[in-house]
Design brief:
Layout lengths: L1 H14 L3 H6 L1 H28 L10 H10 L6 H13 L6 H18 L3
């Protein structure tokens, strides 16, 4: 499935990020955040495609939040709070201007990669 493969490829790139560089280099930091945004976007779209393939009612259309909740309700994802937090951070990060908030986002991305990436 192409959407799933694209998501896995993006996640693999993000997992390989040198997060030490993200703390010291503004361009690298923005690259990590951009890759997170792309990876997250592909994640919910891949989830939607998988649920459609499995005939899950309601998966045909919906916002990212609705698709994540539906995925959780149908056992396709775990830790709905983490996924909804990532959605919230994805929505907020275009408005982050201070270094402390950016550093917190980088930590969340790093920790999420370590927790969910499976080689």
């Amino acid at each position: 499935m192409k959407k799933y493969d694209n998501f896995v490829d993006c996640l693999s790139v993000l997992e390989k990020a040198n997060f030490s560089n993200a703390y010291n280099d503004e361009i690298y930091r923005m690259g990590v955040i951009g890759q997170f945004n792309l990876t997250f976007e592909l994640s919910w779209k891949a989830l939607q495609a998988v649920m459609r393939l499995h005939g899950v009612s309601g998966a045909e259309i919906g916002s990212p939040r609705e698709i994540l909740k539906l995925g959780y309700a149908n056992g396709f994802i775990k830790d709905s709070e983490v996924w909804l937090l990532m959605l919230s951070k994805r929505n907020e990060n275009i408005h982050i201007y201070d270094d402390k908030a950016i550093d917190e986002l980088i930590v969340m991305i790093r920790d999420s990669c370590k927790r969910y990436y499976k080689s």
